[in-house]
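pipeline stage [seq->struct] | target=GH16 domain-containing protein | organism=Penicillium crustosum | residues=324
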Amino acid sequence: MILSATAIGIGALLSAVPVCAASYSQTKVYDSTNFFDGFNFTSDADPSGGFVKYVDAETARSSGMAKISNGAVYLGANYVDKSTNGRPSTRVRSKDVFTSGLFVADIAHMPAGTGKGGSCGIWPAYWTSGPDWPNSGEIDIIEGVNGQKSNAVTLHTAKGCNMDVSGSESTANQTSADCEDSDAGCSQATTSSNNYGAAFNANGGGVYVTEWASLSINVWFFPRGTAAANAVINAGAADLDVAKFGAPLAHFEGNTCNIAERFKNNYIIFNTNFCGGWASREFLNDKTCASLADTCNDWVANNPAAFNEAYWLINSVKIYARNN
């Protein structure tokens, strides 16, 4: 086989101690040309009890909460009006469902805050989930609340699923091994300074790569401007070999859990939530947030300008299938 220059470049730039040799071929690309054709807007009530009102596609487009901005997909929230019934926002879900694969998300900006209130009240997520929750599983690739500094990667399943995370980066801290652990799931808190929130945005974002295989689920993060990020972004339609990515940011291996049975038929989801169970609790535990208002809902309802940075800017989401 004759390797292309691109393939050679990826191998050189990302070479490290292999985790598990696996090559993937690109099958689908969502970007500014087709993203809104491949995703549906969901306007159902937020399942976490968030102080949010998800809008339909027509409302999202007419209000400017969903659009193409400088060649990227913009998904935001209302930052103009006060709201007593929940802040209008966007939640989109892929039309296709997935049961495995490699998911490469090139994200330039995520919902956060930079003003007096910082990110208080904001609960963004890039994740996958199926219609039969929790039996079909959930993978939270990017998630956090309020002033959280680093990303938390979390899995959710029905009872009886424990994960081994020993292959993760040394900076990841396991907070729970039990994926049915109430709202918490089996989670790994990371400590990287630029993989989440305002710091992520200040660096121009980066690339999140998620490998969903039969025996493990892995998440890597490559910051914007690094050789690794550039190699993945510039790979085009070339195959990707995760063995050259090095240790993942978060690694989950089925300990007492059959991943192939527990995770299936998931949609890809992007949403910006406000308050709700987790964010509201942490709002009161955060000195900065608690000083702003008596409750998370009060802050979000009455301070729309605080949320002008509460938007996703997505360059692309590329889907790959594993080669046999």
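stage status: PASS
auto-comment: The radius of gyration is 19 Å. The first helix runs from residue 5 to 14.
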